[in-house]
Amino acid sequence: MSQVSTIATAPGKLILCGEHAVVYGRPAIALPLHALRAQVMVMPGNKGDGLRLVAPDLGQEWRVDADHDHPLSVLVLQTLERLGQNGQKPLDLTITPTSEIPVAAGLGSGAAVATALVRALADYMGQPLPPEEMATLVYSSEERLHGTPSGIDNTVIAFERAIWFERGMEMDNQPEPTIEPVDIGAPFRLVVGDTGERSPTHRSVGEVRRRWQADPGRYEELFYRIDSVVRQIRIALASDDITSLGLLINENQELLEAMGVSSPALERLVAAAQNAGAWGAKLSGGGWGGVMLALVDETTVEPVVEALAQAGAVRVLTTQVP
Ligand code: PMV
After folding, report:
1. Please, what is the angle between helix 109-124 and helix 71-82, to 10°?
2. Cβ within 8 Å of residue 53, ≥6 positions away
């Protein structure tokens, strides 16, 4: 165990295509967003202080044993258990999470903080964990927070590379997820625009579930069409076909609108990006606010950034993939 402090970080994420349908076993493609990161510092605490979490972003500080139901407390205890710390020898640690990733914006802030926490604790104890094990620990934390997560956020953030993701479905005798690297023929650029509207993922995911239960035929059809778009996007990415990629991204947006998870603010930014020359644009993540992404090239990046700011984006950033 280290006697000096340890710092670990984890990136935000973007869902390039397939959100929501991925909860129902359809494929999706996700990318790490290295420009925004969460960070967790673990340092030795005072003797007898036990495990303390200090979260300056939340303005909160607590002892794990005093608030053991807090999702971060549960994650600390589960991670230590995985690392063989079964509580027989009490640990005095101060754990400080901070994050530059906006919350409830579709950028995976919760999963990034959780991943940085698992990574920092494991590194501090001198037992770094492989990405799949970090993803598993973070998945149970996400489950407590939003019910039926597909597992895509924790996976892309733990692996920190573009992934093809299909959730494991018990009913199909496929309990394990499929996680594959995505072949990217040539680097491409995305502009991300934040509507500033905040909507926790569990709300839109819950609403889609209610609508799917009320009208399974219509929703299965939408999921099927998204599945087909995601498969075509994989091919377009591998073959560096930016024209098809853009059209498919637009098609995914139309399907998300039909599903009812878009919003006027998202559609304003999507239209602004398209009108400014983006090859394609769509919401990314849970929807009902949060962020959208636009596919651009060297000549359209500046006009699209400008158009998004003009259309009311509270934050605009660009990222290159990979
Ligand atoms: O809003 P985010 O960043 O948590 O993305 C959620 C993606 C969904 O497909 C809507 C939900 C999920 O668990 O996959």
Report:
1. 40
2. 60, 61, 62, 63, 64, 70, 72, 73, 76, 95, 96, 97
pLDDT the model gives residue 87: 72
Q: What is the mean pLDDT of residues 163-181?
A: 87
Residue 172 has a pLDDT of 72
Catalytic residue (one of 57, 153, 215, 241) = 153
Give buried/exposed letters for 191-207 (b at 16+ CB in 10 A, else e): bbbbbebebbbebbbeb
Q: Does residue 275 have a pLDDT over 90?
A: yes
Query: Which residue, chain included where needed, has tokens 């690297």?
Result: 181
- Output the CA 14–ligand 1 centroid distance in Å: 10
Percent with pLDDT over 70 in the chain: 99
Question: Which of 13, 14, 15 has most ligand 1 atoms within 8 Å of its beta carbon, as the pocket-test mutant?
Answer: 15
pLDDT at residue 233 is higher than 70: yes
Banded pLDDT at 290 (limits 50, 70, 90): very high
User: How far apart (Å, rounded) are the C-alpha atoms in residues 213 and 276?
Assistant: 39
CA of 13 to the centre of ligand 1 (A): 10
Maximum C-alpha span of the chain? 62
215 is an active site residue? no
